[in-house]
Write a structure and sequence with these properties.
By secondary structure, this protein is an all-alpha fold. The chain is built from three helices and no strands. The mean pLDDT is about 90.
């Protein structure tokens, strides 16, 4: 099983999402999968 993403990466994804950015651009910018952003 893979390790979870670091807390700071999660926080950056949440902050971008709450600022109104879409899931796919967030995932591309942070180099993670879109499904990880939506969880």
């Amino acid at each position: 099983m893979t390790r979870p993403y670091a807390d700071d990466l999660r926080a950056r994804a949440v902050a971008r999402y709450e600022a109104g950015e879409s899931i796919r651009p967030i995932a591309a910018a942070l180099q993670i999968s879109p499904s990880c952003v939506s969880k």
